[in-house]
Amino acid sequence: MTTKTSELLADAAPRAVAVVRAISDNQFDLPTPCADYTVRDLLGHLFQVVVNFQAMAARESADWADKTDRLTDGWRDRFVAETERLVAAWADPAALEGVSPGMGLPQETIGDMALIDLTVHAWDLARATGQPYEAASAVIATLDAFMDRMGEMGQQQGAFAAPVTAPPNATDLERAVARMGRDPNWSPN
Predict the structure, then answer these.
(1) I need a labelling partner for 84 at 20 to 30 A (CA). Which of 9, 50, 117, 181 fits?
(2) For residue 31, which phi and psi values (nearest 5 degrees)?
(3) How many structural domains comprise the chain?
């Protein structure tokens, strides 16, 4: 069984995994487009996102305050396993029904948030470590639709910075991340 959310996550997950697997430990201290995060910090956050959104699919509480260091021996393989669990968690149609008890938002919106975090943070990490990254057009369309619905509230709550003007030659993904306050031309240098 699958849902639209799990199908989008199934497309985004291997792309994120490819970026994560290619990050070397000596890149952990590099800056990222998320000003407050180094590569190591953002990897830890992305790991937390992948785990917590599994719980949220099951309407369980997510512990965003947990700062367990997940980047220990075998972390890349564990990240792969957790992204597979994320996709599976959102494949159950019940995961998309009703309202999230923890956030008070429709479960479909929570699923979109999982997709956005996975996609945008993979883009952040790719930028920080000099890797290519592309997202599927259906994923980008979901990011744009989410920003149409939730962008202003996300900015007010600090989840997104003020939009940045994308250059005329920007890709669709670069335009989407610019709406979230990221500079499409960002580089670590």
Answers:
(1) 181
(2) -75, 160
(3) 1
Closest by Cα among 3, 1, 4 to 141: 4
State how far the Cα of 28 lies from the Cα of 128, in Å rounded to an integer. 10
Tell me how far apart the alpha carbons of residues 15 and 18 are, in angstroms, rounded to a whole number. Answer: 5
Residue-range definition of the domain harbouring residue 111: 4-137
* Domain-located, residue 178: no
Residue 143 lies in a domain: no
CATH assignment of the domain containing 131: 1.20.120.450
Q: Percent of the chain scored above 90 by pLDDT?
A: 85
pLDDT tens by residue, 43-96: 999 999 999 999 999 999 888 888 889 999 999 999 999 999 999 999 999 999
Model confidence pTM above 0.90: yes
